[in-house]
Design brief:
The chain has 345 residues and is an all-alpha fold. The protein has twelve helices and three strands; from the N terminus they run H-H-H-H-H-H-H-H-H-E-E-H-H-E-H.
């Protein structure tokens, strides 16, 4: 049921649901701010409170829009904010997986830093397509051909986002398989597994679940766009609150409870030895290629063909000081607190 003749909504928008969601997202966001301060992990998990803030602002706009259903700028603001927030959580997954690869560098299929630059670069391209398509569709002076082209761009961008995310999950799955073969991660929960094995298994499973939640939301958006403005998803409000609301809130709460930095060191120079027990502080994995080349060839395919020798610093682990497991979840400077002579590094 449309609330009024001039409403931008094909239904009467709820005035209660946005309030409930903005309150719960605000609480979860506040807790993520606390966790980032506690673990000093703004560079790694700072996107979690940022995504939560986008949702809070988006639902505030949605609440205002429910009382002013014919106000186009507020309608556009709420729609854009709720579209932008979930990809921010995807960025967090990229960063965390990169940090996992830094922690187990000898099993990483690519340079850990390239996980972030590659997938973030893809997201930037997809975002540009989305923005261009949205501008064409929303323009009051757009011709029918422009609107049609804009809708096609939106469809393409959402599909590309889904493909990009599936590639990310495939990369994580490949790394996980290598960890199992190496014996660092047990294929099934085992009381005999050491603490580091359990932590690696937990962080990988967290990324799988988070990826699945975000992918479900992407599928919802794909179906909505292909159904068009007259489709079921666009003409009913409850799917938005399920997929953009409850699903994303579940992702936030899961990471409130099992924060990634409970299982990883803050310093990307700390790595796990091949014995799966001892931690060492190495020089870090540095890509010495020119920055432009890392963007053009993130997987160093040229290096594979040229058989370039990589800096396998983990093969010289006896040269690196041992680091206590207190550094996991302890924030920066934990090496000194654990009695590590960082001056010797």
């Amino acid at each position: 049921m449309v609330c009024c003749d001039s409403s931008l909504y094909p239904f009467s928008p709820s005035k209660v649901a946005p309030i409930i969601l903005l309150v719960v997202f605000l609480a979860s966001t506040a807790h993520h701010v606390y966790l980032n301060v506690r673990y000093r992990s703004w560079r790694i998990t700072g996107t979690l409170p940022w995504g939560g803030l986008l949702f809070v602002t988006g639902f505030v706009m949605r609440e205002i829009s429910a009382f002013k259903p014919n106000h186009l700028p507020i309608f556009i603001a709420s729609t854009c904010l709720l579209l932008l927030a979930p990809p921010v959580y995807a960025v967090m997954n990229y960063i965390v997986l990169g940090r996992v690869l830094y922690y187990v560098p000898y099993l990483s299929p690519i340079h850990p830093g390239r996980v972030i630059s590659t997938f973030l670069g893809l997201d930037a391209v997809i975002g540009a397509i989305t923005g261009n398509g949205g501008a064409r569709v929303a323009s009051p002076n757009a011709s029918p051909s422009d609107i049609s082209a804009g809708k096609a761009m939106l469809r393409a961008s959402i599909i590309l986002q889904l493909v990009s995310f599936f590639l990310f999950v495939a990369l994580e799955g490949y790394f996980h398989r290598r960890c199992i073969r190496q014996g660092l991660v047990a294929p099934k929960p085992s009381p005999e597994a050491n603490e580091q094995s359990k932590k690696l298994r937990r962080i990988l499973h967290l990324m799988y679940i988070s990826s699945a939640i975000i992918s479900c939301r992407h599928v919802f958006r794909v179906v909505e766009v292909f159904q068009g403005n007259e489709g079921y998803l666009a003409t009913h409000e409850w799917p938005l609150y399920i997929f953009d609301g409850l699903f994303m809130f579940a992702n936030m709460v899961m990471l409130n409870i099992w924060h990634p930095m409970r299982y990883l060191p803050n310093d990307n120079k700390i790595y796990l030895r091949k014995d799966g027990v001892t931690q060492r502080r190495g020089p870090g994995w540095v890509d010495k290629r020119p920055f432009i080349l890392t963007l053009v060839d993130p997987f160093d395919v040229a290096g594979l063909f040229m058989k370039k020798e990589k800096d396998r610093f983990w093969d010289h682990e006896d040269e690196h000081p041992t680091v206590g497991h207190e550094t996991v979840g302890a924030g920066k400077g934990a090496g000194k607190a654990a009695g590590v002579d960082t001056a010797a590094v």
